[in-house]
Design brief:
Blueprint lengths: L1 H25 L5 E2 L7 E3 L9 E10 L5 E9 L2 E2 L1 E8 L9 E2 L1 H5 L4 E3 L4 E2 L3 E11 L5 E12 L5 E13 L14
Parallel strand pairs: 2-12
Antiparallel strand pairs: 1-3, 3-7, 3-10, 4-9, 4-11, 5-11, 6-8, 6-10, 11-12
Length: 182
């Protein structure tokens, strides 16, 4: 009979430890902050034959005591036809909603692809969102940026950075953010 009691005791202790680990993994706070961004941005080129691509900055702060290694970024609530690509300048804060060609940001710091980028602990970094309007489209817009990274105990965390952004085709006035912002 003592063998059965011992097995039950081990099972109960194991269940309690697993429940505690599960609770720790679920209750971890968000690490990334955009300093309460407000307003939307929509940019485009004035020249009729200008480029159909534009890069916009989003400063992001890692408030945790450990670096965040980004596993991936993607656009949420995308409207219009186009391509969106993410890059990061780690450890450097650029102004919010600065926009221009990607090459102009390469002078600001080491630009790296968002996948496997490290966001230093207790520090600012800048996410570069490059949007390209499709050939026959008038604009492309996103409502948020979804950042995935490894959390505690091997979990995968995804944070939504509410940042409505849009790019319009050259010489158009068609950037509508109403479909992606509240």
């Amino acid at each position: 009979m003592s063998l059965a009691r011992h097995a039950i005791a081990v099972s109960v202790v194991t269940a309690l430890v697993l429940a505690a680990l599960f609770a720790i993994a679920l209750t971890q706070p968000d690490r990334l902050d955009t300093a309460h961004l407000s307003g939307d941005v929509c940019a485009g080129w004035a020249a009729r034959n200008g480029p159909r691509s534009m890069t916009v900055t989003i400063p992001v702060r890692n408030d945790s005591s450990v670096p965040v290694r980004v596993m991936g970024m993607r656009a949420g609530e995308q409207t219009g036809a186009g391509k969106v690509r993410f890059r990061v300048i780690s450890g450097k804060r650029l102004s919010l909603n600065t926009f221009g060609p990607l090459r102009s940001f390469r002078r600001q710091g080491h630009v790296q692809d968002a996948v496997a980028a490290n966001l230093p602990a207790r520090s600012w970094s800048t996410v570069l969102v490059s949007m390209t309007v499709a050939q026959h489209a008038r604009s492309v817009a996103i409502g948020d940026v979804q950042v995935s990274y490894r959390g505690r105990l091997g979990t995968v965390r995804t944070e939504h950075l509410d940042t409505p952004l849009g790019v319009q085709a050259p010489r158009t006035n068609a950037c509508d953010l109403s479909g992606v912002s509240s």
